[in-house]
């Protein structure tokens, strides 16, 4: 059951931020990061998305720990889930012209909330590739070993590109971030379901 909670949470996270972003005035899924959806009058939607889905993924991670499938994988995914929760608790600062009236670029100085959000984001974007690396070694099925290894390399490349896009305040920042999130979260949801079949 815990694996299913983790899988549903991973997919739900994607569905919610995609729908919310498509229906937001002045929000661009190509330019703006997912975290910007936590700003403005409807910010509570993405805040709840971070927290609820983060808890769900942490529950799935706890299932991995309890089952004894892989302590390391369960611990890393637990960090991933909790980092999502913290990303919801601590919001990023308004920037990149969102919400309307926000600075056009990325300010040099940030609030404490933004700094904590960045730290939580680092936990998210570093733990998922790490989980893929571990899965490539621990999963008994060769197909999943190869898939996880490929996903690990892909996520690392996307993380590097996202860091570069963020530093340069790229007009395609949101698109690059989504190139990491969508395949990564889908892989995670599928992994939970694959592990459910092993136990």
From TrEMBL:
It comes from Nesterenkonia rhizosphaerae. The keyword Ribosomal protein does not apply. This is DUF998 domain-containing protein. It comes from the Bacteria. The chain crosses the membrane at residues 6-23, 44-65, 71-90, 144-163, 175-196. Signal peptide: none annotated. Keywords: Membrane, Transmembrane, Transmembrane helix. InterPro entries: DUF998. The keyword Transmembrane helix applies. Pfam families: DUF998.
